[in-house]
Amino acid sequence: xxxxxRLIVALDVPSVAxxxxxxxxxxxxxxxxxxxxxxxxxxxxxxxxxxxxxxERVFLDLKYHDIPNTVAGAMDAAARLGxxxxxxxxxxxxxxxxxxxKAKQDRDTRLLAIxxxxxxxxxxxxxxxxxxxxxxxxxxxxxxxxxxxADGVVASPQEVALIxxxxxxxxxxxTPGIRPLGASRGDQARAATPAAAVAAGCDYIVVxxxxxxxxxxxxxxxxxxxEFASATAR
Length: 234
Ligand code: C5P
Prior knowledge:
It contains ten helices and eight strands.
Protein backbone atom coordinates (compact mmCIF):
# COMPACT_ATOMS: atom_id res chain seq x y z
CA UNK A 1 0.00 0.00 0.00
CA UNK A 2 1.48 3.40 -0.90
CA UNK A 3 1.42 6.25 1.60
CA UNK A 4 -1.51 8.12 0.05
CA UNK A 5 -3.70 4.98 0.14
CA ARG A 6 -3.40 5.02 3.94
CA LEU A 7 -5.06 8.42 4.31
CA ILE A 8 -8.83 8.39 4.91
CA VAL A 9 -10.48 11.82 4.97
CA ALA A 10 -13.65 12.23 7.05
CA LEU A 11 -16.28 14.05 5.00
CA ASP A 12 -17.81 15.57 8.14
CA VAL A 13 -19.80 18.30 6.38
CA PRO A 14 -23.49 19.14 6.76
CA SER A 15 -24.63 18.91 3.15
CA VAL A 16 -24.38 16.70 0.09
CA ALA A 17 -23.28 19.69 -2.04
CA UNK A 18 -20.33 20.38 0.29
CA UNK A 19 -19.37 16.70 0.34
CA UNK A 20 -19.43 16.51 -3.46
CA UNK A 21 -17.32 19.67 -3.82
CA UNK A 22 -14.82 18.56 -1.18
CA UNK A 23 -14.43 15.04 -2.56
CA UNK A 24 -13.83 16.44 -6.05
CA UNK A 25 -11.11 18.78 -4.74
CA UNK A 26 -9.48 15.89 -2.88
CA UNK A 27 -9.65 13.27 -5.64
CA UNK A 28 -6.18 11.85 -6.23
CA UNK A 29 -4.83 13.34 -2.98
CA UNK A 30 -6.31 10.85 -0.47
CA UNK A 31 -6.84 7.08 -0.40
CA UNK A 32 -10.40 6.90 0.89
CA UNK A 33 -13.42 9.00 1.91
CA UNK A 34 -15.24 8.40 5.20
CA UNK A 35 -18.99 9.00 5.24
CA UNK A 36 -20.27 9.14 8.81
CA UNK A 37 -23.66 9.51 10.41
CA UNK A 38 -23.79 13.32 10.02
CA UNK A 39 -23.41 13.31 6.25
CA UNK A 40 -25.34 10.06 5.84
CA UNK A 41 -28.34 11.54 7.66
CA UNK A 42 -28.15 14.58 5.37
CA UNK A 43 -28.53 12.49 2.21
CA UNK A 44 -25.10 10.90 2.15
CA UNK A 45 -26.14 7.66 0.49
CA UNK A 46 -26.16 9.62 -2.77
CA UNK A 47 -22.64 10.83 -2.00
CA UNK A 48 -21.60 7.21 -1.37
CA UNK A 49 -23.10 6.10 -4.70
CA UNK A 50 -21.38 8.92 -6.61
CA UNK A 51 -18.02 8.26 -4.93
CA UNK A 52 -18.20 4.54 -5.72
CA UNK A 53 -19.19 5.37 -9.34
CA UNK A 54 -16.07 7.58 -9.53
CA UNK A 55 -14.06 4.53 -8.36
CA GLU A 56 -13.23 6.16 -5.04
CA ARG A 57 -12.86 3.97 -1.97
CA VAL A 58 -15.41 4.64 0.79
CA PHE A 59 -15.48 3.90 4.53
CA LEU A 60 -19.16 3.82 5.54
CA ASP A 61 -18.83 4.75 9.23
CA LEU A 62 -22.32 4.12 10.64
CA LYS A 63 -21.21 2.02 13.63
CA TYR A 64 -24.03 -0.53 13.50
CA HIS A 65 -25.19 -1.94 16.85
CA ASP A 66 -28.46 -3.90 16.73
CA ILE A 67 -29.73 -7.48 16.83
CA PRO A 68 -27.69 -9.82 14.59
CA ASN A 69 -30.41 -10.19 11.94
CA THR A 70 -30.77 -6.43 11.49
CA VAL A 71 -27.03 -5.79 11.40
CA ALA A 72 -26.65 -8.60 8.84
CA GLY A 73 -29.21 -6.86 6.63
CA ALA A 74 -27.45 -3.51 6.99
CA MET A 75 -24.09 -5.09 6.24
CA ASP A 76 -25.44 -6.84 3.16
CA ALA A 77 -26.85 -3.54 1.86
CA ALA A 78 -23.58 -1.70 2.56
CA ALA A 79 -21.51 -4.36 0.82
CA ARG A 80 -23.83 -4.16 -2.21
CA LEU A 81 -23.12 -0.42 -2.37
CA GLY A 82 -19.51 -1.36 -3.00
CA UNK A 83 -17.89 0.38 -0.04
CA UNK A 84 -14.42 -0.68 1.11
CA UNK A 85 -14.91 -0.45 4.89
CA UNK A 86 -17.95 -0.72 7.20
CA UNK A 87 -18.01 -0.69 11.01
CA UNK A 88 -20.04 -2.14 13.88
CA UNK A 89 -19.75 -1.72 17.65
CA UNK A 90 -17.91 -4.68 19.17
CA UNK A 91 -20.18 -4.19 22.18
CA UNK A 92 -22.97 -5.63 20.01
CA UNK A 93 -21.38 -9.00 20.80
CA UNK A 94 -19.84 -11.90 18.92
CA UNK A 95 -23.10 -13.18 17.41
CA UNK A 96 -23.78 -9.75 15.90
CA UNK A 97 -20.23 -9.40 14.55
CA UNK A 98 -20.33 -12.93 13.11
CA UNK A 99 -23.67 -12.19 11.42
CA UNK A 100 -22.18 -9.04 9.85
CA UNK A 101 -19.07 -10.92 8.71
CA LYS A 102 -21.24 -13.62 7.14
CA ALA A 103 -23.55 -11.12 5.44
CA LYS A 104 -20.79 -9.45 3.45
CA GLN A 105 -20.10 -12.91 1.94
CA ASP A 106 -17.14 -12.84 -0.42
CA ARG A 107 -17.45 -9.19 -1.39
CA ASP A 108 -14.39 -6.96 -0.99
CA THR A 109 -15.92 -4.91 1.84
CA ARG A 110 -13.88 -5.20 5.05
CA LEU A 111 -15.60 -5.26 8.43
CA LEU A 112 -14.21 -3.12 11.26
CA ALA A 113 -15.28 -3.09 14.90
CA ILE A 114 -15.31 -0.13 17.25
CA UNK A 115 -13.92 -1.25 20.62
CA UNK A 116 -14.41 1.52 23.18
CA UNK A 117 -15.24 4.99 21.88
CA UNK A 118 -12.47 7.45 22.68
CA UNK A 119 -15.06 9.63 24.41
CA UNK A 120 -15.17 7.06 27.25
CA UNK A 121 -12.95 6.94 30.31
CA UNK A 122 -12.71 4.64 33.35
CA UNK A 123 -15.62 6.42 35.07
CA UNK A 124 -18.03 6.10 32.12
CA UNK A 125 -17.06 2.43 31.64
CA UNK A 126 -17.85 1.79 35.31
CA UNK A 127 -21.17 3.61 34.83
CA UNK A 128 -21.97 1.06 32.09
CA UNK A 129 -20.93 -1.86 34.30
CA UNK A 130 -17.82 -2.70 32.23
CA UNK A 131 -15.01 -4.05 34.38
CA UNK A 132 -11.36 -3.02 34.17
CA UNK A 133 -9.48 -0.19 32.53
CA UNK A 134 -10.21 1.29 29.11
CA UNK A 135 -7.13 -0.45 27.69
CA UNK A 136 -8.19 -3.85 29.07
CA UNK A 137 -11.66 -3.38 27.56
CA UNK A 138 -10.17 -2.33 24.21
CA UNK A 139 -7.95 -5.43 24.01
CA UNK A 140 -10.75 -7.75 25.18
CA UNK A 141 -13.14 -6.38 22.55
CA UNK A 142 -10.52 -6.39 19.77
CA UNK A 143 -9.88 -10.09 20.46
CA UNK A 144 -13.60 -10.82 20.56
CA UNK A 145 -14.13 -8.98 17.24
CA UNK A 146 -11.29 -10.84 15.57
CA UNK A 147 -12.57 -14.21 16.78
CA UNK A 148 -16.06 -13.39 15.51
CA UNK A 149 -14.77 -12.60 12.02
CA ALA A 150 -14.06 -8.85 11.91
CA ASP A 151 -11.19 -7.79 9.64
CA GLY A 152 -9.96 -5.09 12.00
CA VAL A 153 -10.76 -2.36 14.50
CA VAL A 154 -10.92 1.41 14.82
CA ALA A 155 -8.60 2.47 17.64
CA SER A 156 -6.96 5.53 19.14
CA PRO A 157 -3.25 6.04 18.39
CA GLN A 158 -2.40 5.07 21.98
CA GLU A 159 -4.00 1.64 21.55
CA VAL A 160 -2.42 0.57 18.24
CA ALA A 161 0.58 -1.24 19.72
CA LEU A 162 -1.54 -3.16 22.27
CA ILE A 163 -3.95 -4.29 19.54
CA UNK A 164 -1.10 -5.36 17.24
CA UNK A 165 0.31 -7.43 20.10
CA UNK A 166 -3.06 -9.06 20.84
CA UNK A 167 -4.36 -9.55 17.30
CA UNK A 168 -1.31 -9.84 15.06
CA UNK A 169 -0.06 -8.14 11.92
CA UNK A 170 -2.90 -9.06 9.55
CA UNK A 171 -5.66 -7.44 11.59
CA UNK A 172 -6.50 -3.96 10.23
CA UNK A 173 -6.09 -1.02 12.60
CA UNK A 174 -7.69 2.28 11.55
CA THR A 175 -6.73 5.30 13.64
CA PRO A 176 -8.57 8.62 14.03
CA GLY A 177 -7.45 11.38 16.39
CA ILE A 178 -4.67 12.52 14.09
CA ARG A 179 -3.22 16.01 14.27
CA PRO A 180 -0.37 17.13 12.00
CA LEU A 181 2.53 18.94 13.63
CA GLY A 182 1.42 22.43 14.61
CA ALA A 183 -2.31 21.83 14.03
CA SER A 184 -5.09 22.66 16.49
CA ARG A 185 -6.22 19.61 18.49
CA GLY A 186 -9.89 20.56 18.39
CA ASP A 187 -11.71 18.16 20.71
CA GLN A 188 -9.24 15.27 20.18
CA ALA A 189 -7.75 14.85 23.65
CA ARG A 190 -5.47 11.88 22.85
CA ALA A 191 -4.14 12.96 19.46
CA ALA A 192 -1.02 11.74 17.65
CA THR A 193 0.83 13.04 14.61
CA PRO A 194 0.39 11.13 11.31
CA ALA A 195 3.98 9.86 11.48
CA ALA A 196 3.58 8.65 15.08
CA ALA A 197 0.36 6.80 14.25
CA VAL A 198 1.88 5.07 11.22
CA ALA A 199 5.07 4.27 13.12
CA ALA A 200 2.93 2.71 15.90
CA GLY A 201 1.65 0.26 13.30
CA CYS A 202 -1.75 1.42 12.06
CA ASP A 203 -2.86 0.59 8.52
CA TYR A 204 -4.98 3.68 7.90
CA ILE A 205 -5.27 7.10 9.50
CA VAL A 206 -8.54 9.06 9.54
CA VAL A 207 -8.24 12.84 9.35
CA UNK A 208 -11.15 15.28 9.36
CA UNK A 209 -10.83 18.93 10.33
CA UNK A 210 -7.12 19.44 9.63
CA UNK A 211 -7.97 18.71 5.97
CA UNK A 212 -11.59 19.72 5.46
CA UNK A 213 -11.23 23.08 7.26
CA UNK A 214 -7.95 23.97 5.51
CA UNK A 215 -8.02 26.83 3.00
CA UNK A 216 -6.48 24.37 0.50
CA UNK A 217 -7.65 20.86 1.47
CA UNK A 218 -5.65 19.11 -1.27
CA UNK A 219 -2.42 20.80 -0.14
CA UNK A 220 -3.21 19.91 3.50
CA UNK A 221 -3.74 16.26 2.48
CA UNK A 222 -0.47 16.22 0.51
CA UNK A 223 1.40 17.66 3.49
CA UNK A 224 -0.01 14.95 5.80
CA UNK A 225 0.95 12.17 3.38
CA UNK A 226 4.45 13.65 3.15
CA GLU A 227 4.61 13.78 6.96
CA PHE A 228 4.01 10.04 7.42
CA ALA A 229 5.46 8.68 4.15
CA SER A 230 8.87 8.31 5.72
CA ALA A 231 7.57 6.67 8.93
CA THR A 232 8.14 2.94 9.31
CA ALA A 233 6.31 1.29 6.42
CA ARG A 234 4.21 -1.81 7.12
O1 C5P B 1 -11.88 16.19 12.58
P1 C5P B 1 -11.18 14.98 13.13
O2 C5P B 1 -9.84 14.71 12.46
O3 C5P B 1 -11.11 14.97 14.63
O4 C5P B 1 -12.13 13.79 12.67
C1 C5P B 1 -11.92 12.47 13.08
C2 C5P B 1 -12.98 11.57 12.52
O5 C5P B 1 -12.82 10.29 13.09
C3 C5P B 1 -14.41 12.01 12.83
O6 C5P B 1 -15.23 11.62 11.72
C4 C5P B 1 -14.75 11.23 14.07
O7 C5P B 1 -16.12 10.93 14.16
C5 C5P B 1 -13.98 9.94 13.83
N1 C5P B 1 -13.65 9.19 15.03
C6 C5P B 1 -12.93 9.70 16.10
N2 C5P B 1 -12.65 8.93 17.18
C7 C5P B 1 -13.09 7.69 17.24
C8 C5P B 1 -13.83 7.16 16.18
C9 C5P B 1 -14.09 7.95 15.09
O8 C5P B 1 -12.49 10.83 16.05
N3 C5P B 1 -12.80 6.95 18.28
